[in-house]
Amino acid sequence: MANDYGFVRNFDSLKFIVSKLCEHGFASYTEKLVTNVAHEFFPDEFVCDTLIKGWCVDGKLDEARRLSQEMYRDGFEIDSVGYNAILDCVCRVCRKKDPFGVRSEAEKVLIDMDSTLCTKVYHFSISVVGFTPINLIVFVNNTKKLSN
User: What does CATH list as the number for 2-139?
Assistant: First the structure.
């Protein structure tokens, strides 16, 4: 990595490379990179959230959900960055394919959030062009979930 690309081989360089590749929609290459160097630099929550965001930038909602489920199985907690990226991707994908399916797809994401037993409070505001904004206030503590 240092000889080929001019980056020092450390975890901060890996984070930088992951964030820039995912920012431009190269999530598949980035996930392979992270997998290949996992024995040397074990990915943290930032790297995993950035990978989810990268899949969403690329418009691959199924891959983002797959990665979020793998993260949960491996003991990581998805941050609001990951959930915001997934919800943004839901809006973009549904706007192209099925604009009336936004609410049901967003509810699937909320169910995923509830099943991971997060103890955080999230507020999402989803606006779809031509439709009424959907405001979601989610208190996920395995006891209460509100959405309107």
Answer: 1.25.40.10
